[in-house]
Amino acid sequence: MDILFPYRESGIPFRIPKNAQVFHPAVLTPVDRTYTAIIKTLLRPLGYKQTLFDIAKKCKSGCVVVDAYSSPITNRQILNPIIKTLHAAGMSHDDIIILVTSEYPSEFSQELFQSIFDQEFLRRYNVQAHDVFDQAQHEFIGKTSSGTPVHLDSRLQRADLKIITGGIYPHYLFGCAGAPLLLAFGVSGPETIQALYDLAGPENLDDFQLLNQKSKLSLELFDMLKLAELDFIVNISIDSAFRFVDIFSGKPASVIHEIADRHAARGYSILEGKADIAISCAGNSHCEMSWYHNLMSVCLARSFLKTGGTLIYITPLFDQANAQITGIRDKSDLIDFFSLNKMIHSTRAKIFSCMDEGAIVFVSPELGHAKLKKRSDRDVFFCSSVDSALTFAAKGGTGTPNILLLPDGLFTHLGLSS
């Protein structure tokens, strides 16, 4: 079976062995006329009898939180109808703050504004970035019922109308990421993030899933949503071509319930822990050089593997780091390469545990033709072709291998089909 995976502009071809059983994600139908579809959800928001326009008419100012890790195309499509609605309700440009998240442990660079918004938008609107390490930006608004201190960006708290937007993605630790996680990790202080990560120990990872509405994480987030008095969520799921698959708008609690019900109806990770080999990538060219998207995609793909299974991961991320990759021998070295040493102390261990056992083979045609050889002193490898990586992964195996193809990477939808 001949396969072509996303890689740069042309893609990367490889061949699946005839004796393998191949599984792949379901293909979901994108919505038609995205702008109209979003407007319809703003006119019929979940949990409200009023429209967003009606709610905004009662407010003098608004803060719209934007996910820095969503694509510029996605952010523009979400923002456009929201901002037009706020203007129609009487808010001027000066009444609206666009607050860009900065999810820990990364720091948002001002230069990234240029990649998210065009110059005309930046000239007309007050666009600012959250800084997780700037304590002066945070406001303590109380504690959750379990004692988590909640420090949120004061610019969000001062606004009369608080809106969070963003995408719904599989997450290495939380099962699913969405707007509630952006509130908890994208516009909060390190004290809040530390407390939330401390809830997720190796013994209770199953109880830390966003879509499990009785999990510790969900209960904490519901408390945070109440303390923050968040008014409105616009959450979307997209495919790797940035086409909208789902649009959820409305009262935060109602949106979370609807997302959980929708994903439960589709089926959740039916191949989890069953694949001998998984082949994945970041999903599209926009994410190929993002350490965040690559790390999330690696951890997601690992969750589908049997213990000791092999992940083959296609990425150009290491193309400019040939001198450095010789020092990457295990997953600890890999986390160091991703510059995650400054993480809050428990976070690094959580990511390490999500990578599980087994080998990871990174593939890029630019990495040369070094011969792959299994060694007891390393579990991270590099090579130039998927075919070589498949031969390497199959060594020592018996029977028919289960191979899972994840060409959409982080944009893989949770319901899978064979």
Summed up, the domain count is 2
Strand content: 15-25%
> Per CATH, what is the topology of the largest domain?
Rossmann fold
Assembly type of the shown chains? single chain
Helix content: 25-40%
Briefly note the structural class of the backbone.
Answer: alpha/beta
Q: Report the sheet with the most strands, covering strand number, pairing sense and barrel closure.
A: 7 strands, mixed
DSSP summary: helix tally:
15
Describe, in plain words, how this protein is organized in 3D:
With 418 residues, the protein is α/β, with parallel strands linked by helices. It folds into two domains: 2-27 and 269-417, LarA, C-terminal domain (2-enoyl-CoA Hydratase, Chain A, domain 1, Alpha-Beta Complex), CATH 3.90.226; 34-266, 3-Layer(aba) Sandwich (Rossmann fold), CATH 3.40.50.11440. The protein contains 15 helices and 19 strands. A seven-stranded mixed β-sheet has the order 17-16-15-14-18-3-19. Strands 6-5-4-9-12-13 form a six-stranded mixed β-sheet, sandwiched between helices. A hairpin with a 6-residue loop joins strand 1 and strand 2. The protein starts with a strand and ends with a strand. The mean pLDDT is 81.
